[in-house]
Amino acid sequence: MSNQFLDLINKRRTIYAIGKNVEHTPEYLTDLIQNAIKQSPSSFNSQSSRAVILFNAEHEKFWGFVKEKLKSYATDEAAAAKTAAKMDSFAAGVGTVLFFEDQDVIQGLQDKFALYAENFPIWSEHSTAIAQFAVWSALHADGVGASLQHYNPVVDAEVHAEWNVPENWKLRAQIVFGSIEGEPAPKSYIDDAERFKVFK
């Protein structure tokens, strides 16, 4: 099977070894990220996804916040050192996208369409996942390595305070990105029979 979109996502991988040797400007990458999010579908066209895009020192500041907060979770010095090294590897990249969902939008839909009220928070999670995947794939298509992280709610308070993020924006995930400085590990798949059922 030959399909341009499938060819792209087949090649998209989690890249942990990232650096600052990205050929694209922050302006180019900002436009890329914003367009990927804008073109991502959402339930009832709610467009509930929000993003804070951090580059360079601001990006490093975010991972510094995470590193500092995680110190209290370490069980011993070895664990603390391992966690610190991991945060430093993220900071070694060039940027981070913080993904949020606007809770005011979700509440508004719940009020307007009461029959589906309990589903809107679930559909919101679908929307942000699609936006994350779209950004991740778009970055990969332009030769930028990335990985998806979830350090919320550990640093939520710091994020809201530092970057003046509205309280109704709920942090859901982070994509950290940079130049590809190492190859990803081989990817394995479970058997199709365990995942799919097809009826004709």
From TrEMBL:
One GO biological process term is: cellular response to oxidative stress
Give a Pfam family name.
Nitroreductase
Q: Which GO terms describe its cellular component?
A: cytoplasm
Major location category of this protein: cytoplasm
Its recorded name reads Nitroreductase family protein
InterPro entries membership: Frm2/Hbn1, Nitroreductase, Nitroreductase-like
Keywords, alphabetical: Cytoplasm, Oxidoreductase
Gene3D superfamilies with a match to the protein in the record: NADH Oxidase
GO MF:
oxidoreductase activity
Q: Where does it live in the cell? A: Cytoplasm
**Domain Nitroreductase residues, every copy:** 9-178
